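Quarterly update, task 2.4: pyridoxal-5'-phosphate-bound model.
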Amino acid sequence: MSRVAHPAGPRHADVLPADHPPAPPEDLNALDPAIWPRGARRADGVLTLGGIDVRDLATQFGTPALITDEADVRGRAREYVEAFGDGSQVFYASKAFCSRAVLRWVTEEGLGVDVCTGGELEVALSAGVDPARITLHGNNKLPAELERAVTARIGHIAVDSFEEIARLAYYAERAGVRPRVLVRVTTGVEAHTHEFMATAHDDQKFGFSLASGDADEAVRRVLALPVLTFAGLHSHIGSQIFDTAGFEVAARRVLELAARIHAEHGVAIEELDLGGGFGIAYTTEDDAPEVKTLAAGLRAIVAGQCAAFGLPEPRLTIEPGRGIIGPSTVTLYEVGTIKNVDGIRTYVSVDGGMSDNIRTALYDAAYTCVLASRSAAAPPMLCRVVGRHCESGDIVVRDCYLPSDLAPGDLIAVAATGAYCRSLASNYNHLPRPGVVAVRDGTAREIVRRETLDDLLRLDVG
Ligand SMILES: Cc1ncc(COP(=O)(O)O)c(C=O)c1O
């Protein structure tokens, strides 16, 4: 890479294929039900969420704000439970978005909760989640986190390194508890997703490699420690996955290991956790499969592979995060400035940005957005929605069409921001992080309070 300054070309951040930008939508005011929360409507042209006018939400709670449709979250949670059916378990991956209210909703719908830090674990415990229905993940769990998980008697701990097996045994012994352990396996499957979202190819930090024999050795060590209960195997191949092909290869490789364990130790795995990663529609170009189709595919894969290896079928667990919370939420922003860069594009600056949605900068994520505070008949204008941070990569929506009469003060809504937006939010440039507002049947309440500048100043104790 050249580090010598040179005159720039005219375009910035064009990473999309040559056929971009896509054609404008037929109706700029339309809300595609595959993308928007189930409770999203237009009433007299204005977007309503859970029966509430977004202008009222903006007045009451300020912008930017993440608005979460509770019925949507509960409905999707129920669909996962129904689709995977008896004998399987669905755990909500709280890293996608972790708040007490959401953890209560999903557990009331029959899900368990998957956490990957002590912080997420405390939210789950303080939400009243049954510890037996919590699994702890993470490639470097702190000793104090392992101790807390053991003493809280959570249901499962997915071990991720040899050091951790020894540390966990130490805390289990000390607490007189015998935790159930899953061994996280790196299957060598590369999910066709962004590099930073793929988690099971060999060259990465998670899990025990199957190819090197580390996974077999990890199981040996867990079985050799009477203070640990070997429950089964775990694999997570990545995120935003649209078909079962990757899961099929991963399941086959994990079950080959299960067959070796059976042959070597006479132990059949009780549990097979195939992780999360089920994709959702962010734009009309995403064709997300129905959950029941995915579920039928995964169950058939596991049944078929177990039959082929002569193994009893383990209990199947899956851990969707995005698939449950992602589509339920939209981010409301107020438009501040509109700058037409002649012959290139129009930049629409909003009152948030990469501090409330880093996914565009991090993963080249694509989003859909609409003018929310009114409908418009004006012709479409190709826009780039950008934030107010001191970074030219501070892009919220790389390419979208908004009406050409868009004006400062209008509200725009970005769809499908429930997963990995608020949970990845930062205070970059000392912007307070936005609140999260739950809407349901015409009522709204903040479930995560909007931060204030005072919150930030209180931390500055120098
Ligand atoms: C172990 C594990 N389980 C589940 C998930 C959830 O993935 P998703 O939100 O894509 O369903 C992740 C995401 O990184 C993960 O690492």
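Highlight for this quarter: DSSP finds twelve helices and 21 strands in the chain.
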